[in-house]
Amino acid sequence: MVAATSVDKPWLVQKYGGTSLGKLMDTICGSIIPDHAKNHKLVVVCSALSGTLKAKGTTSLLLECIALAELGVDAQEKLVDLVCLIRDNHLAILDSIFETQKQSAFEAYDIPKTNIVKECEALKKFLLAAQVVGELSPRSKDRVISLGEKLACVTIAACLANKDILAKPVILDDVVSTVFGTSADDQAAALDKLGSRFYHVIAKEIAIRIRNCEPAIPIVTGFFGIMPNSLIQTVGRGYSDLCAAMCAVAVGATELQIWKEVDGIFTADPRKIPSAQLLSSVTADEATELTYYGSEVIHPLTMDQIREANISLRLKNVFKPHAEGTLIDPKSTSSTFEIGQVKKVIAPPGVLLKQDFSVGRFERRRPTAVTVKDDILLIHVICNRNTKSGGLLIQVFERLERNNIVVDLIATSERNVSLAVHSPGNLSAVLRLKEELERFGQVAIAKNMSIVTLVGHKMRSQIGVANETLSALAAANVNIHLISQGASEISISLVVNAQDATTALNAIHREVLKIPTIEEGRFRRIVVAAKSISDAQNASPFPPDPNSSQSTISTVEREIREAGGEATAIAVDVRDFESVKRCVEKTVEIYGRLDVLVYNSGAIWWASVEDTPMKRFQLMQSVNPQGLYGTVEVALPHLKKHGTGRIIVVSPPIYSRFFRGKTAYAMGKVGMSVLTKGLAMDFERQGLTDMAITSIWPAAAIESAATRKMTDKNPKEEEDLRKATIFSDAIIAMLRAPASSVNGRLELDEDYLRSDTGVTDFSKYSVVPETSPRRIMPAQLPDLTVKEQDDEGKRMNSAEGKAKL
After folding, report:
1. Is 239 an active-site residue?
2. What family, per the record (predicted)?
3. Domain boundary among 215, 238, 258
4. Given 134, 243, 512, 689, which residue has the most CB atoms within 10 angstroms?
C-alpha cells in the first residue's frame, strides 16, 4: 500500500460531486487523485453517489425514504425495499471495484462491505421507528441524508485501496456536537453569536481529524454535522462545497478544487448561449453575484470562507482533468470602491483581449458575464394616502418575512414599492401575501418573470455600461419592468418577461460583452497553425510583408488580436499525426469547440515524372493528401459535435490538363479533391445536412512568396497576379452559404464569387491597378457525375469487420 502524503508537500483539497463520482469513479481514483497526490498532500471531500440521472442518486433515494417514513406503517414494505436498494447499489459498486481480484484483502474489501451493511441496517431501524410516529424533525432528516456521504466515502476509500493508495474515511456527522455540545439550543446560540466564525471553529476540529489520518489520504464526508435548525435549512444543498472550504481553511491549503462535469464558469449559460466563452478567472465577488442571480457556481458561504483565508478556488472538469478550468481569486475583491468613484482604464495594445482578470494591474474592458434567474414574481404596491412610505416598507417586509419569501430586488418611490421575489411555489402563500399587502394599498403581482443580471468587476465605475445594456435590450424589443443598479458595484439587474429572458441574454452577451454569436465567431476566433513561429512582439516592421519570411503564424496572431479578434498560434507539422492531434486538442481546450477547418498546407514540385525524385514525391504526399486526411480524421468528431462543421480544402477541380508537367504534385492535389467529394457523400449518407466540405482553387495566379521569385526577375509578371483577398472573400462567402449549397463542390475563387454572390467587377483584386490578370484555369470544367450516380451496387463497410492493422 502506497502512502500518498508527505510533510514537505503543500495541502490541496478536492471536492467531487456525486454525479462525477458515479460516472467516473475509476478515472478519479485511478488517475486524477494519484496525479495530484504526487506533489500535494490531499484531502478529498465527497458528495453522495449519483448516476446519470439525479433522480436515481443516493440523496434522491434517501429523500424518498423520508417521505415513506412520514406516511406511517402502511409504507413499511416500500421503505425496507428502498433502504435495501441503497445498500445493494453500493455493494454492487464495491464488487465491481474488486471483481478482477480472486482474493481480496480483508481491510480493502470486507471492512467497507461490513460498514455499508451496518450503516444501512442502522438507517432502516431508525426509519422504521420514525414510521410509528409518522413524522421526522428537520434534524432527524439531516441524519438520514448524511448516510449518502458516509457510504460514498467508504466506497471511494475502498476504490483507492484497490489501487494501492492509502486512504481513510473521515465521518463528520458528529463534528458540530463535538465542538458545541449536543444541545440544539447551545448550538443555535453559538451560530447566532459567531456568524461565519461558527464555521471557522468547526474547521479547527476538522483539522484534527484530517491530520490524524496521515499518511493516508482523508476521504471526508461533505455532510458536516447536524446543525441547530438542520444543515439543509441553515446552509442549503451546497453544504458539501462549504465543507470542502472548511477543510481547506483547516489545513491551510494552497488551493481548493471543486470538480464538476462542466469546464468552469462561462460568460453565459452555454446551454442557452452557444457562443458563451469559458472564463479563465473571476473575482470572488463576481462568483458570489453570479451564484445569487442564477448561475450554479459556488455557495456564498463557501466564498466567505476562502476569501477570509485567502485560498484560491478552482473549478475543474472531471472529463478534462488536464484543463485549467476557472480560477476564483480571493484577493481580487471590490471592497475598496467608493461612492461616486469613476475610473477609466486604458490598457496597452495586446492586453485584456480575453475576458481574464489575472493580467497584472489592468482590469477587464468589458463586464464579465450575464446570467438569468427564473421563476420570479414581480410585486407592485401602491401605497394609500393613510400610510407613510417608511411605514409601508416596514409593513411589506414584515409580511414577506412572515411568509418566508426572500426579496431579490427592490425599487421604491414616495408611494410605490416594486419587489422581485423568487416564487414560493405555493399558490396559497402568494394569495395570502397579496391579501395582507392590500391593507396598505393597491397590489399587483406579475408571474412568469425573470431577472437578467450583468456582472463585472468594478462595473459601476465603467462609463457607458448601463447605456449599452438598455440600448441592446431596446434593439431586441425586450421590455424592462424593473432596474436595479447601485446596491452592488459589480452588477446591473433587470426584470423582464420570462419569455424574453433568452433574447435578453443573447442581446447583452453580443452587444455589451461584445462576444459574437457562433456564426459571427467563426470568423473572429481563429487558430493559425503552421510549422514556423517567431517572436511577433519584436517583429520590425510590423505588420511584416505577408509574402516575406518575417511573416509567420505568430505575426498573423498578433495582427488578428490587434484588429479586435481572438487568435492563437500553434506550431504543427502536418506530416506528424501526433502533432496534428495535439494541435486540434489544444484548439478545443482553448476555445471549447471547433467550427471550421481550412487546410492550406501544401508542398510543391512541378516537374516531369523523370525529374521528380522519390523524396520530393514522398514529401508532397505526406503534406498534401496524407496531411489533409489526418487533420480531417482528428477534427471530424469536434466538427460533428454541433452538427454544423465546415471544411475548406485548397485543392483543384479535377481535369486532365492539370496533370501535365507536374504529375507527382497532381497526384496529391487531386487526391485531396477526391477526399472532398467522398467526405461530402458521407455527410449526405449520414444525414448531416448542415455540414459541408468544399475545395477552392485560384482561377488566376495569386500573389505569394512563390510568385515573388518570378516578379523579382520580371516585374511585368505582376500584371497577371491577383491579391490574396479574392481567395479569402470566396472562402468567407462559402462559409456563410447554406451547407447544402457548397457541400462537395470543387470551386474556383472567381467563378464562385460570380455565380453565387453576384460579383462582376474583379478589378479591385488586381495587384497592378487597371490590369486583367490572365486566367490560368479552363473556362469550363468537366462534370464528374455519371448516369448511374445514385446506384451504389452492393454496399460494403470494412469498418464493420473490425479488422485491425
Report:
1. no
2. Belongs to the aspartokinase family.
3. 258
4. 243
